[in-house]
Design goal:
Elements (H helix, E strand, L loop, with lengths): L1 H18 L17 H14 L6 E5 H7 L4 H7 L10 E2 L5 H8 L9 H5 L1 H8 L2 E3 L7 E3 L12 H4 L2 E9 L18 E10 L8 H19 L3 H30 L4
Antiparallel strand pairs: 1-2, 3-4, 5-6
Helix pairs in contact: 2-9, 7-9
Bound molecules: heme C.
The site of heme C has 23 residues, from helix 6 and helix 7.
Amino acid sequence: MKKLILLSLMLIMPAFAVASAGPKVALDHIQTDAADKASLQRGMKTYVNYCLGCHTAQYQRYIRAAEDLHMPAELVAEHLIFSDQKVGEQMTNAMDSKLAADWFGAPPPDLTNEVNLRGADWVYTYLRSFYVDDSRPYGVNNVVFPSVGMPNVLLELQGVQSKACAQVPKYDEHGSAVIDSLTGKALTVESCEVLTVAEGTGSMNQAQFDAAVYDLTNFMSYMAKPYKSDSQRIGMWAILFCLLMTLVFYFLKKEFWRDVH
Ligand code: HEC
């Protein structure tokens, strides 16, 4: 019995580990799409340009990504590998994790499985939630992951984002907007936690930046479940096959029982 209790405790531990990762903030929802190869290709490009230097994806081989994302291996070798690595190798880097821990306070974790750990919504919101905070070593903090050691590496794309005060819709405890019964308009409250990007400081506008982070998160979701697109395709054929066989067996049954009655 003791062992059973211990085992159940161990099984529910990961749930607490994720829950303790940060404050409860509303995450922006995205629908990842393993079939959108163009999005995955753009995401991989962003990953190797902006993330791979610090974060390995050691369970992902370049060649497997080339095949799954419908890219010729030569093009991947030429445009997406910046080290002397070969296309058959895993996506690793030359960073010493002990040194990195000294620089950033924590070593950058491998990100092959990150979406399985945190979820796509978390990653998508996290990457868009850095804001200026001069009290931090790299001058930025993050709403989703307070006091994170990671610098805002996408700053040149997004621009300088900081917290500002603005009127925001008021929500009740169930998360729905509070409507003024007299005027019929939604009530607002002042919040000084509104993230705003200083205009002209990034190379992308907000919609373009959101799209770029969507593609990046989509690629990270692919890495976490590389078989997803295959299983969806095969699953469809399997269902069609079952339907077809149901029909065949139905007529077969009719044939077998024809003379019995
Ligand atoms: C300069 C190095 C550096 C670069 C480049 C970088 N990161 Fe990070 N990242 C870090 C460090 C260090 C941490 C760990 C921070 C901590 O635990 O406080 C981290 C943490 C993270 C986490 C949270 C991991 C967790 O604990 O679950 C995610 C997600 C992440 N990075 C994604 C990215 C993505 C995507 C990119 C590319 C756009 C990127 N990072 C680029 C250094 C970097």
